Amino acid sequence: MSKKYKFRVNGALEFDLTDEDVSKIDALQTSENRYHTLLEEKSYHAEIVETNFNTKKYTVKVNGNSYQVTIANELDMQIAAMGFSVGSSKQVNAIKAPMPGLLLDIHVEVDQEVKENDPILILEAMKMENVILSPRDGVIKSITASKGDALDKGQMLIEFA
């Protein structure tokens, strides 16, 4: 199965590619951060000017024009679908199941204080254990699922006070 990526250019243009699509790109690396690419019989010179691996944002210069590019993989897209994202994550008041799966463990209790990035739940999905982290500092208001529950995508799991 091919991995999917979402590219956003200058915050406006958005398109999807798979790793299969990426492997078909005719690009030759000419130096550490420079590439020569052929696309539809046109030549492009690209340079990766700036990278931020934490936010997955890149500044890329193509034929002298600069572009801000953000690349999201499948996990990034699932996290965004849950409502978690840089900047807006502090406003998250609930955690919902990002995909169908089995709730293996709950690491918190009602009225417990948690810090951002504390482990809250472990969800088994597609034969993988996914640790769900707290999106913000806060207090657990309610837990609406139990250990061992089969979960549906979008099912409410935890609410913050």
UniProtKB/TrEMBL annotation:
InterPro entries: Biotin_BS, Biotin_Carboxyl_Carrier/Decarb, Biotin_lipoyl, Single_hybrid_motif. Transmembrane segments: none annotated. Signal peptide: none annotated. Keywords: Biotin. It comes from the Bacteria. CDD domains: biotinyl_domain. Residues 83-161 form the Lipoyl-binding domain. Pfam families: Biotin_lipoyl. PANTHER family: OXALOACETATE DECARBOXYLASE ALPHA CHAIN. This is Acetyl-CoA carboxylase biotin carboxyl carrier protein subunit.
